[in-house]
Structure formats: C-alpha cells, structure tokens
Amino acid sequence: MQRVSGAAVDAGGRRVGAIGAGLLVLLGIGDRDGPGDAECLAERTARLRIFDDDEGKLNRSALDVNGEVLVVSQFTLYGDVWRGLRPSFGRAAARQRGEELYFSYVARLRDLGLPVVTGEYGARMQVSLVNDGPVTILMDSERSF
To answer: Which of 42, 93, 115, 133 could form a disulfide with 108 if both were Cys (CB 3.0 to 4.6 A apart)?
Structure first.
C-alpha cells in the first residue's frame, strides 16, 4: 500500500476509479490466502497508523483522517523471478478464488467506514499516483517477508 495525495486507475481507455488523499492498495491474492486473511488485512489497512499527526509523526490511520482507498488487483505481486527470466505466477490464487477474496477485502474496508473505489478485477489497467512521503508499506498475510 502507498500513502497518496491522489491516485487513479484507467482500464480500456476510461477512468474507472480515482481518489484524493488516502491509500492506494495493490492487492495480490496468493494460493494459500483465505477469507480470514482478507478480513485481517482489511482491518490492518484501515487501522495502520501511517498518516501524520499534528506533530508530523505517523500516528493516524486512514480511518482517523477520513482517507479514501483505491484497491487495484495485482496478481503479479506473486511473480517468482528466480528461475529463468520470465516470471512464474504459480503462487497466485486462481482467478475465481482471487476475485472472491479481493471483493471480500473491499467489502470489509467499506464495512469499517472507509470510502473505497476499485479498479476492474483481472483487467489490464494503468495506475497513476502521487506517493505522499513517500510512504510505502508491504503487508503479507504469511508474515514471512
């Protein structure tokens, strides 16, 4: 995820989502991920304190600052590049399972009260952003990075 002052996603030559200040989440779903992972990551996304307080310290969450969230599916995060020169995506979730968990994650963010927009699941997209900070955080449900 990246803290942004603005971000947008286009697909098929049209704008499908845009936000102001908040978070851009590039969400990869792995073959071992389940509903509990989607819920846990959504909770942490919403509550992670990566926005500045009045003293400039990272002490506020997206919920605290009324941040918007743009969630873009990105299976290429599971690209294994250590054998040969073409990435292998064998650890990415199958399309249907990935889509279910993607929308479960999005729904949980909305349930928590965050305004969420999305890209188009499985589409070729162009993402633009202004990273604020820059602040970029890697979260992994396997916690093994």
So the answer is: 42
Find the domain containing 47 and state its range.
2-136
The total number of structural domains in the chain stands at: 1
Task: Identify the residue whose tokens are 């590039």.
Answer: 26
> What phi and psi values does residue 67 have, to the nearest 5 degrees?
-75, 150
Active site residue 145: no
| 142 in any annotated domain | no
pLDDT for 145 equals 41
Asked if residue 144 is part of any domain, the answer here is no
- Of the residues 76, 89, 103, 126, only one is catalytic, namely 76
118 counts as catalytic: no
Chunked into runs of 10 residues, the chain (145 residues) has average pLDDT values of 98 97 97 95 97 97 98 92 91 95 98 97 96 94 64
Q: Which of 34, 32, 25 is nearest to 7 (CA)?
A: 25
The pLDDT, as a whole number, for residue 142 is 78
The pLDDT assigned to 22 comes to 98
- Can you give the three-state secondary structure of 4-20, one letter per residue? EEEEEEEECCEEEEEEC
